[in-house]
Amino acid sequence: MRIRPIPVGMLVTCIALALVGCGSAAPTINPSFAGGSVTVEAIGLQFSETIVNLPTGVPLRMILDNKDAGVPHDLRVFEGDTEYAKSAPVTGPGQVEVRFGPLPAGRYQFQCDIHPAMLGTVVVGP
Fold first, then answer.
1. CA distances from 80 to 76, 110, 119 (A)
2. Which end of the chain is less crowded, N or C, counting CB atoms within 10 A of the terminal residue's CB?
3. Sequence ranges of the domains in the chain
4. What is the per-residue pLDDT across 30-74, written as a single tens digit (0 to 9) for each?
């Protein structure tokens, strides 16, 4: 039996396809989080909730549950020019989380930077 070498171009293509497949896996959301947590859905190019509440004095987490099949979304939490958290994009269906804080009481924004019209408010309060 004779073993033939694989052409370099074919090998590169196979490796590239394998890596693309690896990149599509949804990140795992850790269910055990000691702090304030909220989930928002992205569906129909909008957030399911545009106002969410989180407590002061503890670490915070927002989970983006992207229900838009084949559409990428991300999640950024900010106030003015100050960014508190930014997720990697996740193509739906899939989830991604951001962790930040603790933050003082106040109003902060969250947004999908890929679709800037997707905007909401995080109310941090006692």
1. 12, 11, 13
2. N
3. 36-125
4. 677 889 999 999 999 999 999 999 999 999 999 999 999 999 999
- CB burial readout 73-103, b (16+ within 10 A) else e: bbbbbbeeeeebbebebbebebbbbbbbbeb
Who contacts 66 (Cβ-Cβ below 8 Å, separation ≥6)? 41, 42, 72, 73, 90, 91, 92, 93, 94, 95, 96
- Using the structure block, give the residue that is written with the tokens 């996740």: 90
Residue identified by tokens 């991604």 is 96
Structure tokens at 85: 């958290």
The Cα 109–Cα 16 span in angstroms is 37
Cα separation of the two ends of the chain: 74
